[in-house]
């Protein structure tokens, strides 16, 4: 037998010695059972045990930015309507009356909202772009960027000799862009659902900021350049900048310990569920929908009522009092667009600080918002070149403006609350799916409200007594 030296431990002694952890872990003095995570790195295990803080609200700001980014494409094209109808497709530019100019906004809305709704729902049931939620964002943002690059290129070149081709290329871009944006928007809500409710509220706040941002950028680009072509180029390049910021912040998310902590918790819940049932169960969509059906109704109802009136009715309400300090065109710009964007943004911001009423009772004030529709219909809503036969009962301009403030404030506030409550209504392991369902009902409410809004011009010009 070989004699061992005094300072050389035997193999048996070495096996009996406790395993030394890295210094950072030893300083934590964690219990052994908390460190015994299978298939987890030490850093991941630490994240499971110790919940980090969202320092400087970085993750909140990231989801706020993505909220801006998800609605920027829609807002950009809607706000740029005059660029298409009075420049690229105008009689002065192409030499004849283009057949689709009068219905351009309706065609644009159809090409935007139908694929957006379809792919919002499809993204829930089909893993478009892969199983990872964040992976889908890379593909969807990339597609939207390509569509905007094509739009900028079309703005730079002379299309007077082929307006039909320009029109249909633009509409194809809008369709493809909104297919990708449907996936993007729905996925962002799924990601935020892994975190506390205020992060879903951040997306809604970003959505509302987007309208204000796009409106200001539209006015700024027109101010910077009187040339409609150059103004459009600056305008659409701004959208690219916003999307690139969204793209970059996506890559920053996995680097943040606060986000990784909640991401790991969500993955662990999913893994435990999969292992517990042999890895064969699929997500019970009907069960999840049943668990959060009240909040899904709330999400749909808020956006449905909002889009029934804004901007279809509000944008055509005319002042009654000639002495009112706001005259056209400022009356509509202020009481409709500026008021709605500003107060809905304030409503979303308030919802991150105050959550009232409780999830069980929020449906009551949301349902009461239906009363806004008859109020607006019986205001001085006028249809161009048609005679209104429905009587006007509400003709005080200041009261109308105050009501519009409450309409916008309640829209932003209740949309944020309902979207925050939706993931909380489902089991934690299904929170991400519930968040995506909330996003799908949100865009479905928007689409349904827009469809119903086409009835109002006929109603006020044919229904009277």
Automatic annotation (TrEMBL):
GO MF entries: transmembrane transporter activity
Classification via InterPro entries: Eqnu_transpt, MFS_trans_sf
A GO term from the CC aspect: membrane
Transmembrane segments: 58-77, 97-125, 137-160, 166-184, 205-226, 232-253, 296-318, 330-354, 361-378, 398-422, 434-459
Membrane topology annotation: Multi-pass membrane protein
Subcellular location: Membrane
Domain of life where this protein originates: Eukaryota
Keywords (A to Z) from UniProt: Membrane, Transmembrane, Transmembrane helix, Transport
Gene Ontology annotations of biological process type: nucleoside transport
Main location: membrane
Entry similarity comment: Belongs to the SLC29A/ENT transporter (TC 2.A.57) family.
Protein name: Equilibrative nucleoside transporter 1
Organism from which the protein derives: Cryptolaemus montrouzieri
Taxonomic placement: Eukaryota, Metazoa, Ecdysozoa, Arthropoda, Hexapoda
């Amino acid at each position: 037998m070989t004699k061992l030296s005094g300072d050389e431990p035997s193999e048996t002694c070495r096996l009996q010695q406790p395993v030394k952890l890295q210094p950072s872990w030893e300083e934590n003095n964690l219990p052994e059972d908390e460190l015994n995570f299978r298939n987890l790195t030490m850093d991941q295990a630490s994240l499971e045990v110790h919940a980090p803080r969202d320092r400087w609200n970085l993750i909140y700001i990231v989801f706020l930015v993505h909220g801006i980014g998800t609605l920027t494409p829609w807002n950009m094209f809607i706000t740029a309507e005059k660029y298409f109808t009075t420049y690229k497709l105008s009689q002065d530019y192409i030499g004849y009356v283009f057949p689709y100019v009068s219905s351009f906004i309706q065609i644009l809305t159809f090409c935007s909202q139908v694929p957006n709704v379809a792919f919002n729902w499809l993204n829930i049931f089909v893993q478009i772009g892969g199983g990872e939620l964040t992976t889908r964002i890379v593909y969807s943002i990339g597609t939207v960027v390509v569509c905007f690059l094509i739009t900028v290129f079309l703005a730079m070149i002379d299309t007077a000799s082929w307006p039909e081709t320009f029109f249909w290329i633009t509409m194809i871009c809008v369709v493809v862009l909104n297919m990708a944006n449907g996936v993007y928007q729905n996925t962002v809500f799924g990601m935020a659902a892994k975190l506390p409710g205020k992060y879903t509220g951040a997306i809604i706040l970003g959505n509302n900021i987007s309208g204000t941002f796009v409106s200001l950028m539209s006015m700024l680009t027109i101010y910077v350049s009187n040339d409609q072509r150059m103004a459009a180029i600056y305008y659409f390049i701004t959208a690219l900048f916003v999307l690139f910021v969204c793209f970059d912040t996506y890559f920053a998310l996995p680097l943040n310990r606060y986000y990784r902590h909640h991401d790991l918790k969500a993955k662990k819940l999913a893994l435990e569920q999969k292992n517990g049932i042999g890895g064969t169960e699929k997500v019970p969509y009907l069960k999840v929908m049943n668990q959060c059906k009240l909040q899904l109704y709330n999400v749909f109802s808020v956006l449905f009522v909002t889009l029934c009136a804004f901007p279809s009715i509000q944008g055509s309400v005319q002042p009654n009092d000639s002495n009112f300090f706001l005259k056209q065109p400022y009356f509509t710009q202020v009481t409709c667009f500026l008021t709605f964007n500003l107060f809905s943004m304030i409503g979303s911001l308030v919802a991150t600080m105050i959550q009232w009423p409780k999830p069980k009772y929020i449906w009551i004030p949301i349902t009461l918002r239906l009363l806004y529709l008859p109020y607006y219909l019986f205001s001085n809503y006028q249809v161009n070149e048609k005679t209104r036969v429905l009587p006007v009962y509400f003709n005080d301009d200041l009261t109308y403006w105050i009501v519009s403030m409450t309409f916008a404030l309640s829209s932003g506030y209740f949309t944020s609350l309902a979207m925050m409550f939706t993931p909380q209504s489902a089991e934690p392991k299904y929170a991400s799916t519930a968040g995506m369902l909330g996003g799908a009902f949100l865009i479905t409410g928007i689409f349904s409200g827009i469809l119903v809004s086409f009835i109002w011009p006929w109603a006020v010009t044919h229904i009277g007594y």
